[in-house]
Amino acid sequence: SVASLVGVLVGVLITRVRSLYDPVLTVAGVIYTIPSLAMFVLMIPLLGIGFSSAVVALVLYSLLVLIRNTAVGIDGVDENITEAARGMGMTSLGILLRIELPLALPVIFAGIRIAAVSAISLATIAAFIGAGGIGDLLFEGMSSQRDDKIIAGAFAASVMALGTEVLLRQIEKGASPGLSGEFKTIGERLIDG
After folding, report:
1. Which residue from 91, 100, 137, 161 has the least number of CB within 10 angstroms?
2. Buried-state track 114-145, b at ≥16 Cβ within 10 A, e below 16
């Protein structure tokens, strides 16, 4: 999604430009502390009522965990591996794409999972600003005091969140071990010469 792409790119950027590391994480942290309903309401003067306001708010909420996990994953790559790769003539971009990102993939995927499940939970509140979705069932049920709508909305949101968690976990299992194992082997070969 948009949030994953932006979060990973910014996470990579702050590992390359260290002066941005603390300020970017601080700003993302401040955005994350704004209550969700307030964030949705703040988007209305900028983007109006509806779907686009909800999407921007959800992207902003997702950034902290995505940026931080990407940066932590890249920073966690063994320096011996990157130094060996550099010594063999790999460029910084090559090291990033062929060594650091694949080895950081499990941590990055964990951030994507957390962000996706959180976004689904928060999206139910977006119905308050006319964004539609499952949240409509909850709000209609509360306003009309109909338990069946409330239960249906809560059940649907829970199933979506759990389904997303399971799906992303399977994708992570499918992608991470093979990539990590392959690149650890490359890293070990680089160090051993």
Report:
1. 91
2. bbbbbbbebbbbbbbbebebbbbbbbebeeee
Cα 45 to Cα 166: distance, rounded to the nearest angstrom: 37
Pair 113, 169: CB distance under 8 Å: yes
pTM: 0.78
* Among candidate residues 144, 142, 116, the one with its CA nearest the CA of residue 128: 142
DSSP 125: G
CB atoms within 10 A of CB 62: 27
What amino acid occupies position 90?
M
CA–CA distance, 133 with 119 (Å, rounded to integer): 13
Rounded Cα gap, residues 96 and 129, in angstroms = 41
Q: What is the pLDDT of residues 112-165, one digit of tens each?
A: 999 988 888 888 887 777 766 777 777 777 777 888 888 887 888 888 888 888
Assess contact for 166 and 89: CB atoms under 8 A.
Answer: no
Cβ within 8 Å of residue 31, ≥6 positions away:
39, 60, 61, 63, 64
